[in-house]
Amino acid sequence: MKVGIRRARDDDVDWLVDLLNGEETEPYLSGARAFDRAGIAADVERSEREPERFGRFVVEVDGERAGVMGFEERSEAHRIARLGGLAIHPDFRGRHAADDAARLLQRYLLDELGYHRLELACYGFNERAIRHAERVGFVREGIQRRAYLRHGEWQDAVLFSLLREDLDGC
User: Considering the domain boundaries, does residue 139 fall inside one?
Assistant: First the structure.
């Protein structure tokens, strides 16, 4: 299995809309992100326009679209990027494609774009995302209690970070 990532393009937008709104995907994603076609198209355009500050990436498995992930610069002065929006199509789950893709994005952000710190947050109920973050080297930093109102209920956020030196020797 060959996993790769590439920047999302205009011809990916409809596929992304379907993926992000799927019943097995949508409940686990941030409610603050774009889910409609116009918002996703705007994200793709911004990723092309501001490649060092914002990115929407398509995860490919053996050349076939399998998922999406992204980042946004949180602090230019401190070289911090916030990761999020990882979603793998149900047909590709269970093969660790998300792990391989996450490692590719980590290396790209740390080595090529020069970020110092990567951050992410998962809903406390999303055990699959928490296990994924830990498998790919993120360090759990804490819990934001009842931080996000999602589907009518307050949810905890589990906070993670990854520093350049965390990947030394990997």
Answer: no
- 16 domain-assigned: yes
Residue 85: closest CA among 51, 121, 60, 113:
121
- Asked if residue 138 is part of any domain, the answer here is no
Q: What is the pLDDT of residues 15-35, one digit of tens each?
A: 999 999 999 999 988 878 889
Tell me the C-alpha distance between 59 and 86, whole Å. 9
Residue 18 burial (10 A CB sphere; 0-12, 13-18, 19+): exposed
Could you tell me if 94 and 74 are in contact, meaning their C-beta atoms sit under 8 angstroms apart?
Answer: no
Domain carrying residue 64: 3-119
In the numeric block, the tokens 């406390």 are attached to 124
pLDDT tens digit string along 128-152?
999 999 999 999 999 999 999 988 9
